[in-house]
Amino acid sequence: MLEHILQPITFAQIVIMLFLTVLFLQSGIDKVVDFAGNYSWLQGHFAKSPLRNHVKGMLCTITLAEVLAGLLALAGAVEIVMGEGKTIALYGAQLAAIDILLLFFGQRIAKEYAGAAALVPYFLLCVGAVVLLKF
Question: Who contacts 102 (Cβ-Cβ below 8 Å, separation ≥6)?
Answer without folding.
Answer: 61, 62, 65
